[in-house]
From TrEMBL:
UniProt protein name: Leucyl aminopeptidase family protein
Origin: domain of life: Bacteria
PROSITE patterns, A to Z: CYTOSOL_AP
UniProt cross-references to CDD domains, sorted A to Z: Peptidase_M17 (cd00433)
Length: 464
């Protein structure tokens, strides 16, 4: 589906009307219809409740043969998803929201039409449902934002044999080509000297899935530095602390943090945000072989801190540690990382709320405010110094994972905090990157959580 075709300027062209109503206002709204139209709504069991839809024959002489109506929570205050169900069920064609501009609903209209057909031999792309808007300035940013979400979906949905470390590197190469950026890649045994934790986690993988770290730079050198880091574990077996088959079933999504980081960086470059961008993604497969990382090993990090490995299935924080240390060397004004890091965050918050940890209250507040305004709200968890002792090791500077089972998301955040430079404004997203149940505008599968919140915070902070 070509996202650019889904929203077009309203120049008075012929279009089918869309009406929005809620259950509280349905009776009054229906008084303006004729008996046949009300009967048609009744036959479709339409009462105005959220996400209900119906097609109604138009009054003779009023243009198109029919119009559509959708149920929403509040027709006077639209969200991203108010038109999403209509975009999913209506036939291909051109549509206009009756009596008002779609505003934020431009987003869900596009994301509802996302289809990943790359691996289906029998699939045909559906025809486009086009929405008109008179706000021409809103079209380009709305398209870019929806494309960014769909990019996360595509990357996460892609099988790990295709979206391995080399596949992620190919996504970086596309960014470089499209946005005149520069890319430095360190691969395989070359990692051992400067990115030893990345090497230790990824060294057991087959040669064609060799570990690597990608470092993209873009923007004027004298602009404020923004660093974005993403966890790129392209498949997670758990290592020698092997997962069950059930636990491995979704582990293609363990590079979801990398997908978020790539998508956010693309938005920054597309909109020419006045920053100096550093995008870093360590990409590994956490595999099992004779040279796999072992419980009890002690590995010296890029920063110089030694880490005792207590759990090889807590590998994401290890590769992020080296990447965060490298990003900190740029002394960024803001450092954001994304990672599918802990099951504890999902137990606490479920799939829809990404866990957010920050050093500064004002950064958390800005991200939460941007998320609420754009239907992508994160939930803040603490970084309590009280729990740092749970990372103590009798043999090394720290362990990578305690065994007490307490505050797993926050303790993982505390582990990462050790590798972020002192006084750097840092935000950490522990995101799920997967939608287990479809909702209007949000199909089951890979999905973005915290991406839109981060993007709108960056726009507000740095100006675009």
């Amino acid at each position: 589906m070509n996202d650019t075709a889904l929203i077009q300027p309203d120049k008075g062209q012929n279009a089918t009307d869309l009406h929005l109503v809620n259950d509280a206002g349905f009776a009054d709204w229906a008084k303006g219809l004729n008996d046949g139209q009300r009967a048609m709504l009744e036959a479709q069991n339409f009462t105005g409740k959220g996400y209900e839809t119906a097609i109604v024959p138009a009054t003779p002489g009023e243009g198109n043969a029919w119009f559509a109506v959708g149920g929403v929570a509040d027709p006077d205050s639209l969200s991203s998803w108010c038109l999403a169900r209509l975009a999913e069920v209506l036939p291909a064609g051109t549509y206009r929201l009756k009596g008002r501009e779609p505003g934020p609903a431009l987003h869900g209209w596009q994301t509802a039409q996302y289809k990943n057909l790359a691996f289906r031999s029998d699939a045909e792309a559906p025809g486009a449902r086009v929405l008109l808007t008179q706000n021409a300035k809103a079209i380009e940013p709305a398209i870019a934002e929806a494309q960014a979400v769909n990019l996360v979906r595509r990357l996460v949905d892609t099988p790990p044999e295709v979206m391995g470390p080399a596949g992620i590197e190919a996504e970086f190469e596309a960014l470089v080509k499209d946005h005149d950026a520069k890319l430095e890649v360190t691969r395989g045994d070359q990692l051992e000297q400067n990115y030893p934790l990345v090497h230790a986690v990824g060294r057991a993988a087959a040669r064609h899935h060799a570990p690597r770290i990608m470092h993209l730079t873009w923007g004027k050198k004298d602009a404020p530095v923004v660093a974005i880091v993403g966890k790129g574990v392209t498949f997670d077996s758990g290592g020698l602390d092997i997962k069950s088959s059930t636990g491995m079933a979704l582990m293609k999504k363990d590079m979801g943090g990398a997908a978020h980081a790539i998508a956010l960086a693309k938005l920054v470059m597309q909109h020419n945000l006045p920053v100096r961008l550093h995008l870093l993604v360590p990409a590994v497969e956490n595999a099992i072989s004779g040279n796999a990382l072992r419980p009890g090993d002690i590995v010296k990090s890029r920063k110089g801190l030694t880490v005792e490995i207590t759990n090889t299935d807590a590998e994401g924080r290890l590769i992020l540690a080296d990447a965060l240390d490298r990003a900190s060397e740029e002394n960024p004004e803001l450092l954001i990382d994304f990672a599918t890091l802990t099951g504890a965050a999902r137990v606490a918050l479920g799939p829809d709320y990404p866990a957010l940890m920050t050093r500064r209250d004002e950064t958390a507040e800005a991200l939460i405010s941007a998320g609420k305004a754009h239907d992508d709200e994160p939930w803040r968890l603490p970084l309590p110094a009280l729990y740092r002792e749970w990372l103590d090791s009798p043999l090394a500077d720290c362990i990578n994972a305690p065994t007490n089972g307490f505050a797993g998301a926050s303790v993982a955040g505390l582990f990462l905090d050790q590798f972020v430079g002192e006084d750097i404004d840092w935000a950490h997203f522990d995101t799920y990157a997967w939608r287990p149940t479809a909702r209007p505008g949000r199909p089951k599968g890979g999905d973005a959580y915290g991406l839109r919140a981060s993007w709108h915070m960056l726009r507000e902070r740095f100006g675009a």
